[in-house]
């Protein structure tokens, strides 16, 4: 009589999150204006003759300095020209805008790293006005339009004199994800979340099983017959092996590395299996074969053969393809070099002395 069964060795691989945690702060800037419709008599620089005021000959600045008619003065954001209205009135008229010290003609625009500034004049008022936002690859977005920066979505929002890059979502794995929403990408799941004052960030929340179940970072979970650890890293998450999952006495259990269990008997033959490996690889490896019949319980290691009763040989042999097979076979005795052997599928097992 003969029974046989085989247990395959299983090996899997490490998984790393390819999308890392990232964040982006909100950008804020202001527009600047200068009104010049009002004639400013208090700014008149007078000509005095014999200590008597006569006619206007220039303008007086806030600092107390004097400008002659036709001369200019640079404020942080505008170039002002001293103009004569009449003999008793003057006007500091803005003729250009200034951006980082560079002069801008009226109607022109300058693109910075984050915003578009335009020098605009309307109804006695000139302004260094933010007219748009700058996204990736210098793509321009008008006020109210959306744009991307790195892997994030923003809208170009105007609030009074200020313009803000307001975060509205993330781009994760090529897909748009709104603020506070989550998404599964491969074996990991992510969340698009607020960051600071108006910023946004991508958080790797954890791992995803083969059935789509979400696992929080730091937890262990079962998947595909193995025990995994969803391990937190500095900027992300990686999936590593934590052990094996197998049935013992009809109950599905978890086994750490180095722990073993007994398989369900096939006929009267069974195996003891150990969970071997590390975070990178794991193997469910047969280490013993067990026979339990009329001659009692017999346990042997892989590669061993023993006599079971008077007419049977119990063998625990690892085959070429890696399977371990336990068998009880009738003894066929052969003599080789004065030793007695039994042959089991080409393997010679020495018989103990009679």
Write the layout of secondary structure elements.
Blueprint: E1 6-7, E2 15-16, E3 22-24, E4 28-30, E5 32-35, E6 44-49, E7 52-60, E8 66-68, E9 72-74, E10 78-86, E11 89-99, E12 102-104, E13 109-111, E14 115-122, E15 125-134, E16 140-142, E17 146-149, E18 152-159, E19 162-172, E20 175-178, E21 182-185, E22 188-195, E23 199-208, E24 214-216, E25 220-223, E26 226-232, E27 237-248, E28 251-255, E29 260-262, E30 269-277, E31 282-293, E32 296-301, E33 305-308, E34 312-318, E35 324-330, E36 333-336, E37 339-344, E38 347-350
Describe this structure in words.
- The protein contains no helices and 38 strands.
- It is mostly beta strands and 354 residues long.
- The protein has two domains: 23-169, no CATH class; 246-350, no CATH class.
- Strands 2, 25, 26, 27 and 28 form a five-stranded antiparallel sheet that branches. Strands 3, 21, 22, 23 and 24 form a five-stranded antiparallel sheet that branches. Strands 4, 17, 18, 19 and 20 form a five-stranded antiparallel sheet that branches.
- Strand 19 (162-172) and strand 20 (175-178) form a beta hairpin.
- The protein is rod-shaped and about 145 Å long.
- Residues 1-14 have low confidence and may be disordered.
- Residues 1-21 form the signal peptide.
What descriptors fit this protein?
about 350 residues, disordered N terminus, about 65% strand, rod-shaped, five-stranded antiparallel β-sheet, mainly beta, 2 domains, single chain
């Amino acid at each position: 009589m003969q029974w046989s069964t085989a247990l395959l060795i299983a090996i899997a691989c490490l998984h790393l999150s390819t999308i890392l945690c990232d964040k982006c702060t909100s950008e804020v800037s202001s527009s600047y204006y200068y009104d010049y419709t009002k004639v400013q008599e208090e700014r008149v620089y007078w000509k005095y003759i014999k200590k008597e005021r006569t006619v206007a000959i220039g303008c007086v600045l806030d600092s107390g300095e004097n400008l002659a008619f036709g001369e200019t003065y640079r404020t942080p954001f505008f170039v002002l020209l001293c103009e004569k209205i009449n003999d008793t009135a003057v006007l500091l008229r803005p003729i250009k805008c200034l951006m980082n010290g560079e002069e801008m003609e009226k109607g022109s625009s300058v693109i910075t790293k984050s915003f578009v500034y335009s020098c605009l004049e309307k109804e006695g008022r000139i302004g260094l006005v933010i007219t748009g936002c700058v996204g990736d690859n210098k793509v321009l977005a008008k006020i109210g339009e959306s744009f991307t920066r790195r892997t994030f979505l923003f809208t170009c929002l105007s609030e009074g004199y200020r313009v803000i890059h307001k975060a509205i979502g993330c781009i994760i794995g090529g897909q748009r994800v709104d603020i506070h929403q989550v998404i599964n990408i491969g074996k990991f799941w992510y969340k698009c979340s607020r960051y600071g004052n108006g910023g946004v960030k991508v958080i790797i929340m954890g791992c995803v099983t083969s059935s789509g179940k979400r696992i929080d970072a730091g937890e262990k979970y079962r998947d595909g017959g193995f025990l995994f650890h969803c391990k937190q890293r500095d900027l992300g998450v990686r999936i590593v092996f934590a052990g094996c999952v197998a049935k013992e006495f009809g109950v599905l259990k978890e086994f750490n590395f180095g722990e073993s269990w007994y398989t369900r008997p096939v006929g009267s033959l069974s195996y003891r299996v150990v969970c071997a490996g590390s975070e990178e690889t794991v193997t469910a490896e047969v280490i013993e074969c067990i026979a339990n019949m009329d001659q009692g319980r017999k346990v042997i290691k892989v590669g061993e053969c023993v006599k079971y009763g008077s007419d049977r040989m119990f063998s625990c042999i690892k085959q070429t393809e890696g399977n371990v097979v336990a068998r009880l076979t009738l003894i066929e005795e052969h003599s080789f070099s004065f030793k007695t052997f039994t042959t089991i599928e080409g393997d010679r097992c020495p018989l103990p002395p009679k």
